[in-house]
């Protein structure tokens, strides 16, 4: 119980001081393979889908339903490093599943931190600051911090874990080399970059072990705070033929894929809010046009640059197995 209390002293500090920690305020510990707790419009899940004897993970949700904060503490030591768990928070919304053609807004507001559990109390837990960054390096941490959106042509399947046709990941942090975005090893000569909120994201694409097509929008440096509408990252894909507009977004999650650490790590989500919207009644519908990828030009005003250069990028099969986009030697062919 000792370490649990230590973990919670961070979030419950005020209540501890006020002597208001009662049974009601104690966090439930989610330490199993698929332990979940629903709180308001969100579900916390330990999601240790690939756990093994090399380590452990526990997710401690806060009872504070205004911040939706949680802490995931973990350590995995199997070699070579591989993903063991994705402790996360999921949005439950009446609007989901929503066809991407009917998605007008996906607002996020979140803040996170990560540090070795042993980092001296009082030092910053921001992984971009010293000495925490070096402390994380020193324990060989391999992990990421990602938003995970799952989509499928079938509304129900868009909510069924591992069954969805598409996974759209938004990477806000990447530590070590093990957690590499799928397709990064076949990156385009000139990348596709979109600016959303306070960040630039680069697109990678490929297929995962489940046969799901994975699109990853990746920041270059860890982004511990994000406030913005990521709809442009979603709409980009049907706009340029990478998936049909009538694909349903069914699952919205945020967490950390944990691979390896020599010592215990704490991943803090200090706040998380997501809001999915369809166009209000009477408002103009989503523009569902399909365009060719611009070649060496800009889209979306000055903020978003999109370039295509020569070289083979990726083949993406859509729907029942026909190739929709093939990018070869400087051009886009639609088959
Ligand atoms: C938090 O929980 C309380 C008590 O159940 C409820 O009245 C309140 O609406 C909730 N607030 C949020 C933001 O979910
Ligand atoms: C929860 O979601 C419902 C609709 O999906 C919304 O009406 C309600 O305001 C949300 N509650 C909070 C506390 O945000
Ligand atoms: C769009 O979403 C709204 C709200 O969820 C829903 O009422 C409406 O039927 C949807 N329209 C289409 C065309 O799917
Ligand atoms: C989704 O699944 C539910 C429950 O299994 C079923 O009642 C519903 O008809 C399904 N909807 C679609 C669109 O397949």
TrEMBL record:
Query: What is the species of this protein?
Result: Pseudovirgaria hyperparasitica
Xref: PANTHER family: BLR1656 PROTEIN, CONCANAVALIN A-LIKE LECTIN_GLUCANASE
* GO MF terms, alphabetically ordered: carbohydrate binding; cellulase activity
Per the UniProt record, the lineage of the source organism begins with: Eukaryota, Fungi, Dikarya, Ascomycota, Pezizomycotina
- InterPro entries tied to this protein: ConA-like_dom_sf, GH11/12, GH12
> Which GO terms fall under biological process for this protein?
polysaccharide catabolic process
Similarity-based family:
Belongs to the glycosyl hydrolase 12 (cellulase H) family.
> Is Secreted one of the keywords?
no
| Alphabetically ordered keywords of this record | Carbohydrate metabolism, Glycosidase, Hydrolase, Lectin, Membrane, Polysaccharide degradation, Signal, Transmembrane, Transmembrane helix
Leader sequence residues? 1-23
Q: Name one Pfam family in it.
A: Glyco_hydro_12
The molecule here is called Concanavalin A-like lectin/glucanase
Any transmembrane segments, and where? 312-334
Record-linked SUPFAM superfamilies: Concanavalin A-like lectins/glucanases
């Amino acid at each position: 119980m000792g370490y649990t209390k230590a973990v919670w002293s961070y979030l419950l500090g005020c209540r501890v001081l006020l002597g208001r920690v009662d049974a009601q305020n104690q966090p439930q510990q989610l330490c199993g393979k698929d332990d979940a707790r629903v709180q308001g419009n969100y579900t916390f899940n330990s999601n240790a889908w690939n756990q093994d004897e090399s380590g452990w993970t526990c997710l401690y949700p806060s009872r504070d339903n205004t911040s939706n904060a949680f802490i995931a503490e973990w350590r995995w030591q199997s070699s070579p490093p591989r993903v063991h768990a994705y402790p996360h928070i999921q949005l439950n919304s009446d609007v989901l599943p929503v066809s991407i053609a009917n998605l007008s807004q996906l607002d996020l507001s979140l803040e996170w931190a990560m540090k070795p559990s042993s980092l001296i109390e009082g030092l910053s837990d921001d992984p971009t600051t010293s000495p925490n960054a070096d402390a994380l390096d020193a324990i060989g941490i391999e992990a990421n911090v990602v938003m995970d959106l799952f989509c499928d042509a079938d509304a129900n399947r868009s909510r069924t874990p591992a069954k969805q046709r598409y996974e759209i990941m938004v990477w806000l942090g990447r530590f070590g080399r093990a957690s590499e975005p799928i397709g990064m090893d076949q990156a385009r000569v000139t990348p596709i970059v979109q600016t959303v909120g306070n960040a630039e994201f680069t697109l990678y694409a490929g297929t995962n072990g489940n046969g799901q097509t994975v699109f990853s929008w990746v920041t270059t440096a860890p982004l511990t705070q994000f406030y913005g509408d990521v709809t442009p990252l979603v709409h980009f894909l049907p706009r340029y033929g990478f998936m049909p507009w009538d694909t349903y977004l069914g699952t919205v999650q945020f967490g950390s894929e944990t691979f390896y650490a020599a010592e215990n790590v704490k991943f803090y989500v200090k706040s998380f809010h997501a809001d999915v919207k369809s166009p209000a009644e009477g408002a103009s519908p989503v523009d569902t046009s399909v365009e060719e990828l611009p070649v060496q030009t800009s889209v979306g005003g000055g903020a978003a640059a999109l370039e295509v250069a020569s070289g083979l990028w990726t083949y993406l099969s859509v729907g029942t197995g026909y190739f929709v986009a093939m990018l070869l030697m400087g051009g886009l062919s639609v088959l």
